[in-house]
Amino acid sequence: MKKNIGTGDRFLRVMIGVIALIFGLSGMLEGTLKWVVLGVGAVMILTASIQFCPLYTLLGINTCKIKEKK
């Protein structure tokens, strides 16, 4: 897998993922919404940790700065 998530994007994904997990586990949400929020949080943290987003590949987005080889 080629990395397509840059540092800034990675930071935002971790922050959104942590906030989503906190909301999902805090008991503030119930039912299906709770599970959707927990899923979104888990996916955000997972994609940030592996620095690859399949949706970005489909959309042709790349926020990772590519270093040029000398």
Task: Describe the overall structure.
With 70 residues, the protein is an all-alpha fold. The chain is built from three helices and no strands. It has helices at 7-26, 31-50, 54-59. The protein starts with 6 loop residues before the first helix and ends in an 11-residue tail after the last helix. The model has no long low-confidence stretch (mean pLDDT 92).
Task: Report the span from N to C terminus.
Answer: 23 Å
The DSSP helix count reads 3
Instruction: State the major sheet.
Output: none
Strand content: under 5%
The chain-level structural class is mainly alpha
Helix content: 55-70%
Radius of gyration: 14 Å
* Low-confidence runs of at least 5 consecutive residues: none
- For the secondary structure, the number of strands is 0
Name the shape in a single word: elongated
Question: What's the average pLDDT?
Answer: 92
Order of helices and strands: HHH
Key phrases:
elongated, single chain, 66% helix, 70 residues, mainly alpha
Summed up, what is this model?
The chain has 70 residues and is mainly α. Helix content is 66%, strand content 0%. Helix 1 packs antiparallel against helix 2 (31-50).
Layout of helices and strands, plus pairs?
Elements: H1 7-26, H2 31-50, H3 54-59
Helix pairs in contact: 1-2
